[in-house]
UniProtKB/TrEMBL annotation:
This is IQ and AAA domain-containing protein 1-like isoform X4. Residues 241-263 are annotated as: Disordered. Residues 447-568 form the ATPase AAA-type core domain. Residues 241-257 have a biased composition (Basic and acidic residues). It comes from the Eukaryota. It holds the Pfam family AAA. One of its GO terms (molecular function) is ATP binding.
Amino acid sequence: MSEMEDQTLKTRAARRRMRIMQPSKVELIRESPEEKAAREAKLAAERIMRSAILLIQSHERARKGRCYGADVKRIYDYNKKVRFGEIIPRKIDRIRYIKSAVTIQRAWRRYASRKAMRKRIARLEDALGMTIPSWQCRKTRTKDDDNFQRRRALMPVFDAHTKKAISDERTRLLKVRGPGLMEDITDEIHEWFVVWYNALGHYDVFPAADFGGSVLIVTGQTSTPQEYLMEKLEKEKQAKAKGRRAEKMAPRPKAEPIKSQVPGWKMPQTDALSCLEEANIDFIRNWSFRSEKPSEREYLDLITEKLCYELQLEMREIVDDVMRAELDVLNKALLKDHAYDKEKFTIPTMDKNIDKTGTKRKKDILEDVAVEDLFSELLRAKIIRNYPTIFLRDWFGDLSYQNYEARREFRDFKHRLGEVKQLVLEYCILPLISKGTHQVAPLVRSVCIYGLPGAGKTSLANVICSEIGALLFDVSAPVLTGKYMGKEKQQRLIDIISKVARVYAPSIIFLDAGEKPWLKKVPPEEKYLQHKRFANYFVKLMKGIKSGDQILFLSLSEEPQKATAGFNKFHDKFIRVPTTDYNTLYMYYKNLLMKYHGVDRDIDVSCLAKMSVGIPLNFIRQAVEKVLSLRRRITLKFNPLSPIEIMNEILTYQYPTTEMVESLDKFEKLTLSARRKTKVS
């Protein structure tokens, strides 16, 4: 027995030594300072949440205890007064007691049945989609966002595959079709040489690369030998008939234009329509028959077609350079062969005046300054600033369906908020989307958005900037006060804005209170702002905007009638923001009130919309938020919201005076669009 105990002790001692000697396999968790700070912040937030929950629970239990104690004390006082005879309990007949109980039960059951019926109708309308729920399931939208992010993550992978396929196909085409293309193009040009030499004994001028090179030869846009001879004979006849230089300089009589046989005016076709037709034809030819499956690979036929076209142009440029050198050698040989002829041998040459048509380029004072430095300068001066992100879909407004007939009959009509959205889209957003769009679309350099105070002009300006992701240059008088004093510095500021706006296009040059630089009379309290300091520079800046620059001069105005005629000439388009109408207000109230859970789904919105016509949407939103405060939302379950509560708050709005509305109506008739409409009618 003792031997077994000794063996056991030895084994235990050996195991202890092994445990001490063997290193621990448990790895220590090492945290970075950021992870440790995040973990401690999370624990602190959990402790704060637990303490807040305990505080709320303790207060609620104390409140219930106080209520229970007050009830017990009231019952005790009542029984005490009854016992001492201070209160004599009123004895009620049992029949009357039973009738009272039946009346109470009947009223309660009616109330409960009406409440159950309302809940049943609400559930039925909710199932049929007839009501607007306060909570909407975002599961579908979240899934759609996840799919969008997943596809966005796959775009670089497919882009790399497409670039590799383009590179491989380009290498293959260079090996397979490159030499053959060069031979074919060379043969075409050689044939053109032979035709001219056989007909006239010399060669024509090779077209310049700027005008297309040998593409003009292949497409037949160069003159033939017969046309060259006819033109030469005509010039000789004119030279003989006109002996004096003054007669040579006399202009040719203009050919009378062919009058159209169709009476009336016909709208000419715009460049935008031709681009749309080309895009439609391209879609029908290349994309309409293809299946858009997620597992679809790149389309090699389209890649090959595009690369063949690019390869042909590339090979043609190389062959054109070789053929020009060969033509020079042939012309020198011809001149050498005809050096001893009696008549002077001439070879057609390129017109030397072609390259002299360009205008002199104005010297750029800021050429040596980096654009990044100019951008930083404007940023420090707070001319370049940020703006809240608001999209066009957030703009509330309904269309006026009766304006369609009025427009056809050339009757007076007023736009509504929904039509303002379309005008902003056509004049301000769509032309600035891309450089190609700005080149094709009708050029709109400056737009003025005007309306009553609080109508939503600033929101529209933020919408325009947000939709196109524009860089905003704020050139309002309060921003420029005390900055860039003197003519040289003012001109330098305009040059900086012009240069930076073109580099970081699309750009919006924003002018708040746009009528101030052209005021007829400046108020004494605003003279320190010097509104008219940049008026002439703004005109030069606006006139310098060309097609493809993606720049828009946007101004806001509340009192455009106080400006001079130069204000009207400065702006290409005027957009008036009208007052709110019934349809817009009905939609807005529905969208605004249905977000609150306790608000009745059948609240009388029509009455609110009818009484709120002409009140800005922003004021209505603030009024509703003020009425439906947190304390009021708690009581919505047993004290439903009444339209009168909102109406009392909304009626505090100070309506604009009649003179302000009439002056805006008068100014609207003076705008260019109103003049054109009057001429057509």
